[in-house]
Amino acid sequence: MNLRAIEIKAFVPSSDFARSKQFYQDLGFTLASDGGGIAYFHLGESSFLLQDGDPDGIAPHFAMHLLVEDVDAWHAKLTAAGLADRYATKLTPIVQQPWRMRDFCIYDPCGVEWRIAQNTD
C-alpha cells in the first residue's frame, strides 16, 4: 500500500474573482489554468487554487503562509509596485517573530491574509 502524498493545496475564497486573479498575478504568481470557477496559481513549487466565491464570508478570516528566501526583497518589490494602494488593501512592515521568522502581511482584495516570511537563525 502506497500512502505517499504528492502535494497539498488550499482553496482560497474570493468574492471578486476577476480582481483577485489580477492581484495574484501582480503579486508574482503565474495563472496556470482557469475554468469552472477555479483558477490554479503557482510560483516556483508553491501553488494554490483560487475559487470563485466566498458564500460563508470566510475570506477575511483566511490566511496563507508563503516562505521565501529574501523577505526584504519581497517587501521592497510589493512596496515599489504600490500593490496595497492599487487594490485598496494593506501591507504591513516586516517584523521579527519569536518563532525565528521575519515576516510581513499583505491582504488580497477580499481580505485573505498572506503572511510572507523568511526563516532566521
What is the compact description of this entry?
By secondary structure, this protein is of the alpha/beta class. The chain has 3 helices and 8 strands.
Please give a handful of descriptors for the protein shown.
121 residues; alpha/beta; 2,3-Dihydroxybiphenyl 1,2-Dioxygenase, domain 1; four-stranded mixed beta sheet
Helices and strands in order, then pairings?
Blueprint: E1 11-14, H1 17-27, E2 30-35, E3 38-43, E4 46-52, E5 63-67, H2 71-81, H3 83-86, E6 95-97, E7 101-107, E8 113-119
Parallel strand pairs: 1-4, 5-8
Antiparallel strand pairs: 2-3, 3-4, 6-7, 7-8
Could you explain the architecture of this structure?
This protein has helices at residues 17-27, 71-81, 83-86, and strands spanning 11-14, 30-35, 38-43, 46-52, 63-67, 95-97, 101-107, 113-119. With 121 residues, the protein is an alpha/beta fold. It has one domain (11-119): 2,3-Dihydroxybiphenyl 1,2-Dioxygenase, domain 1 (Roll), CATH 3.10.180.10. The chain has a four-stranded mixed beta sheet, with helices on one face. A four-stranded mixed beta sheet has the order 5-8-7-6, with helices on one face. The chain is globular, with a radius of gyration of 15 Å. The model has no long low-confidence stretch (mean pLDDT 97).
